[in-house]
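task queued by scheduler; priority normal; single chain, no ligands, no partner chains; default sampling; output format set to structure tokens
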Amino acid sequence: MSLPDPHRSRVVLIGASRYSDPALPDLPVVARTVTDLAALFTEPRYRLVPESHCTVLLDDGDLRTVGDRLRAAVAGAEDLLLVHYAGHGLVAGRRHTLYLALPDSRWEAPEFNSLEYDKLRDAVLDSPARTKVVVLDCCFSGRAVGDPLSGGGGRIDRLEVAGTYVLTSAQRDQVALVLPGEEHTAFSGRLIRMLREGVAGGPELLTVDDLFRRLSAVMAAEGLPTPLNRGAGTAGSAVLGVNRAFGATAGPALRSRHAAAVERGRAGDWTGAAALLRDVVEEQTRILGAEHEDTLRGRQSHAHSIGGAGSPAEAAGLLRPLLADQLRLLGPDHPDTLRTRQFLAVNLGEAGHREEAVGLLRVLLADRGRVLGTDHPHTLRTLHLLARNLAFAGERAQSLVLLREVVTARERLLGPDHPHTLRAAADLTEVSRVREVQ
């Protein structure tokens, strides 16, 4: 299951908020409803389609224009076609046909100035789209689903074609509601809330069936008209959005997997850690977003593990763009940004770029001293790394000065037998021996 191809999908939003017939009260919330749905479906991070593939027909009273633009949009859909109407639903004629009101519709005679549902249906069925979804938010919208069956269900007599799905805001003879104080129609407003906030405990991707079940439960609990639905073929599994609440559940699990992978690397299996972290980062990017702090931290650990596995040049290539993102999103003094700067310097040094590593570490040492203090373990770690890279770069005299400083500080702060103190002392002995030989 995946999101529809945005470049091969189309969304058509039709709404009427103003009416010339005094018998049809204006519906100001429809304008907000249509506008907010358009923003949701085209939002860059979660978009169903790009803006150019979202046709908005709001308060367009010319039936021919509505028909032409509707047909042009549905003809361009190859993967998903979603058509949503919000406004007054009217019934007329001997067959009690359902009409979708436009600004110039007449309550008494909608046949000649309203969008007949059957014509909308025909336009949808003519579309080459693999999956076609029609959502009707209006009074009497249940008539589009056919006669009620026993038990309160419904069946589609008028859209029973493989790959089609119809969702209505009300039963056959029910009115749709606009509640005082709400910004949207009752039905579409709850749909917007689910798309905007997500469904707690729901799946990662929300299908039209998922949304119908949740809408039915919510509206029944609030005493509102209950929606109807029916799909043919696999249309019910059509994805209409990412569940934005899924990250609240997935985030902790991904952090746990991240921590386990890091521990695997520290235990010596850097290659295995890198493979695990690559998968974690892919899921973090998809679920939490590329700019989430957890995703940035996952990228950092992944790059570090690649360096640990013996590919420092590749690690440095991953750390450079990460650092640019962290500087932009977190700022230069954020602990994660400072850590990435150190990882980058380490891997550049291991890849043979000692002079560049030394330059990065000198600046980082000053920044960590300013932010954390000169006696902080991270500052001393940077000082130790700078001394080591200076030694590898041939600057052994300066390296000895810094290593003595590290050893003295760690003996004072950690004690002479601490592993970090012993490591610095060993490096001091080695650099001293090499210099004496020379």
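post-processing summary
- The longest helix spans residues 246-266.
- The longest strand covers residues 80-86.
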